From TrEMBL:
<dbReference type="Pfam" id="PF13180">
    <property type="entry name" value="PDZ_2"/>
</dbReference>
<keyword id="KW-0732">Signal</keyword>
<dbReference type="InterPro" id="IPR001478">
    <property type="entry name" value="PDZ"/>
</dbReference>
<keyword id="KW-0378">Hydrolase</keyword>
<dbReference type="Pfam" id="PF13365">
    <property type="entry name" value="Trypsin_2"/>
</dbReference>
<feature type="domain" description="PDZ">
    <location>
        <begin position="217"/>
        <end position="338"/>
    </location>
</feature>
<keyword id="KW-0645">Protease</keyword>
<protein>
    <submittedName>
        <fullName>S1C family serine protease</fullName>
        <ecNumber>3.4.21.-</ecNumber>
    </submittedName>
</protein>
<feature type="signal peptide">
    <location>
        <begin position="1"/>
        <end position="28"/>
    </location>
</feature>
<dbReference type="InterPro" id="IPR036034">
    <property type="entry name" value="PDZ_sf"/>
</dbReference>
<dbReference type="GO" id="GO:0006508">
    <property type="term" value="P:proteolysis"/>
</dbReference>
<dbReference type="GO" id="GO:0008233">
    <property type="term" value="F:peptidase activity"/>
</dbReference>
<dbReference type="InterPro" id="IPR051201">
    <property type="entry name" value="Chloro_Bact_Ser_Proteases"/>
</dbReference>
<dbReference type="InterPro" id="IPR009003">
    <property type="entry name" value="Peptidase_S1_PA"/>
</dbReference>
<dbReference type="InterPro" id="IPR001940">
    <property type="entry name" value="Peptidase_S1C"/>
</dbReference>
Amino acid sequence: MDRMLASIKALPGTLLIALMLTACASNAGNSDVADVFARVNNSVVELHVKAIKTETTGNRTSSKGLGSGVLISESGKVLTAAHVVDTATEVKVLFQNGEISFAKILWMEHSADLAMLKLDKVPEGITPVKLGDSKALRTGERIMVIGAPYGVSHSLSVGYVSGRHSGPEKVSRDITPLFIQTDAAINKGNSGGPMFNMRGEVVGIVSRILSQSGGFEGLGFAVASQTVKEIIEEGTLPYAGLTALPLTPELAKVLNIPQGYGALVQQVVPFSPTDLIGLQPGRLPVKVLGRTILLGGDVILAINGIEIRNQEALFKVRENMLVMKEGDPLVINILRDGKVMTLMEEKK
């Protein structure tokens, strides 16, 4: 110890000051993380999801899933990832203090992997957090991720913004989702959880990882908060309880779809609006052009008279549905067992 002290005393004054400042800066950084975590942690929730899917036999089987979310309003709105709740029949929400609430799905955008939930109650003492400005994030900036990896509740991981990338699919004519890349550890159960900046603002919603092993390898992605804001500002469609695959001309040709495009129904959530209107899900998993899809379900050919012949038509359908009023009929033309049929729902 005496030798160590003697060595320190022998250091030049400027170097000694620099070392002290570096140590202080390091401790301050750790303190910032701890302070932000303490401030925002109770806004993070754990989602326990019950889902029912149609199997190859045509029977519906139940399954359970795990994810995360974050409370963003005093009225009980919770943001999460679409893939966490896309076939959910029940969403149970567990808070840090052990209290439980249940949630319904308000809207969902699969192309951005985003969903908004509404709690039936918000426990006392649970405070929402603010959506931050993801446009202001710089590569190299520190961020935090909180979630429930493998069910380990309220786990914190810290990393940096590694980059930003546009999503492969557009939400609408004017919205292309943006994803923030990070090296913060993300694993199963983190999906739907928040990414925070160091001001304690939500700048992303955890979406997916790239991995060859199946576990985290330093390549995680979160949907940017600016995409959330753009979707809300443009307008959201009510939850439909449907997952469908847009058919490219190549897929349409393989499946012998007469109009060369359409949307192949994959899953329909029981008792959802699309289930009540009569849409049928796929049943037979097959690999086509390098991807696994479910065959045997309805192919949506047109909605409200708009034929689905390309991506532009999908945008028109969205725009049409955004301006629909209460009582307006929803008319869906489908291909089922080689026959064209019309399904109709009267809006209540």
